[in-house]
Design brief:
Layout (H helix, E strand, L loop, with lengths): L1 H38 L4 E3 L18 E7 L7 H15 L5 E8 L4 H13 L7 E6 L1 H9 L12 E8 L5 E2 L1 E4 L3 E3 L2 E2 L3 H31 L1
Parallel strand pairs: 2-3, 3-4
Antiparallel strand pairs: 1-6, 2-5, 5-6, 5-9, 7-8
Helix pairs in contact: 2-5
Protein name: Membrane or secreted protein
Keywords: Membrane, Transmembrane, Transmembrane helix
Organism: Flagellimonas pacifica
């Protein structure tokens, strides 16, 4: 009886190991694959954001996944925001070919020199090749921000701690059912938690969305 019991236990152990090694990963794959198919698109909140061609710049939003921000005239007081964004978002996603961070900065007020200092400091933390700073007139900062049609506002220095995800087709992406804000247009770069817990997830979703679209296009061409 003892031998039979031991054999039975051994069979049960082997069956359990097989489930852990083979069945569970399959179930997990099907679950996440289903999630990507059903919930894998980040909602479009504002369509047809204008490109930057009206400004004197070679930077373009077209065909890029862009994190768009507005530094304002007090660049020196936004360094902490930039460092948070660099450490939590840029370091994670900057290696992707079509990813970039674009900061709109008012002309004048010594802002070019302030940005040069900021870039030097950021450069000690990572390669900032895909960080871009576009200098525009005050009125253009306001009009460019307004077309995003968000529930946020620029402060008296034409800046905001919030940054926004713009897709390759010049649409603003965000959340329509955020647990804290409902409609979530932007992410607070002052808050490490907002960048870590929400923005990182949303950037992952949009990157996965484009990867899936690329795979589908390649599969269609090969038929």
């Amino acid at each position: 009886m003892g031998l039979l019991k031991n054999d039975k236990n051994e069979h049960m152990k082997k069956a359990f190991v097989l489930v852990v090694l083979f069945i569970f990963p399959l179930v997990a794959y099907l679950f996440f694959a289903s999630g990507v198919n059903n919930f894998g698109r980040l909602p479009v909140l504002t369509e047809n954001i204008s490109n930057l061609e009206r400004f004197d710049t070679n930077v373009s939003l077209d065909g890029k996944i862009t994190i768009l921000g507005f530094l304002g005239n007090e660049v020196e007081f936004k360094k902490g925001n930039a460092f948070n964004l660099n450490q939590k978002i840029y370091k994670r996603f900057g290696k992707f070919k079509d990813f970039q961070i674009v900061m709109i900065v008012p002309k004048g007020n010594g802002n070019k020199e302030k940005v040069t200092s900021l870039k030097a400091e950021l450069g000690t933390l990572s390669d900032i090749e895909k960080w871009y700073f576009v200098f525009v007139e005050d009125s253009e900062v306001k009009s460019f921000f307004q077309q995003l049609k968000t529930d946020k506002a620029l402060d008296e220095n034409l800046g905001t701690p919030y940054v926004f995800i713009i897709d390759k087709d010049l649409n603003l992406r965000g959340r329509t059912d955020d647990e804290d804000e409902g409609m979530k247009y932007g992410f607070n770069s002052t808050s490490v938690a907002d960048l870590n817990n929400k923005m990182e997830d949303d950037v992952k979703i949009i990157l996965a969305e484009y990867r899936l679209a690329l795979k589908k296009n390649n599969a269609d061409r090969s038929k």
